[in-house]
Amino acid sequence: MRKLKLQVQTTVDGYMGGPQGEMDWLTFPWTDDFAAYVTGLMENVDHIVLGRRLAEGFIPTWAAGPEGESQEAIDFMNNTPKTVISNGLTESPWDNAVVAGGDLAETIGKLKAEPGGDLITYGGSTLVTSLIAADLIDELNLFVNPAAIGAGLPVFPGGGKKRFRLVSATPFDCGVTALRLEPKGA
């Protein structure tokens, strides 16, 4: 069965965005060691899962071929099939993307049961917290930036204790540390 991986940038105090989704705390530029790690994370991925709001910016940005990205990365992001989780959209306005609504666990279960490589999600906030709350993530890749913002969009939803097993912790020259976690018992 395919795994669903989460890749998300976070602050040391656990936020993936400021109160209005601000990302001004992100560490840039990335160093070569960090870029290589991110590339390695994608090696077995052949499907991207996105929330609707993130998809609205993510898909068109990659389709435009963002400056500073390698052609290999641009091709990967554009050519990899995507599922956009939305209960508001009925069809996809984007190339190489389908929309799925309804029961999140059922949707993710169907995607995991399909043949192929792993799935990856980058969020956004509503999708990430819903996936974590429903125990649907198989591998969490938290890119912890050396910044605290005090308030914002939390990576982990309130109201429930979650336990994880640390698989690896990798610091990078740019100051970001990657934490690879699995749900306890996985």
Question: What keywords describe this structure?
Answer:
globular, 186 residues, single chain, alpha/beta, 5 helices, 8-stranded mixed sheet
Describe the fold and architecture:
This protein is of the alpha/beta class and 186 residues long. It is 27% helix and 30% strand. It has helices at residues 32-41, 52-63, 71-79, 104-113, 125-133, and strands at residues 4-11, 15-17, 45-51, 82-85, 97-100, 118-123, 139-145, 153-154, 164-171, 177-183. An eight-stranded mixed β-sheet has the order 5-4-3-6-1-7-10-9. A hairpin with a 5-residue loop joins β9 and β10 (177-183). The radius of gyration is 16 Å and the shape is globular. It starts with a strand and ends with a strand.
Q: What's the structural blueprint in terms of helices and strands?
A:
Layout: E1 4-11, E2 15-17, H1 32-41, E3 45-51, H2 52-63, H3 71-79, E4 82-85, E5 97-100, H4 104-113, E6 118-123, H5 125-133, E7 139-145, E8 153-154, E9 164-171, E10 177-183
Parallel strand pairs: 1-6, 1-7, 3-4, 3-6, 4-5
Antiparallel strand pairs: 2-8, 7-10, 9-10
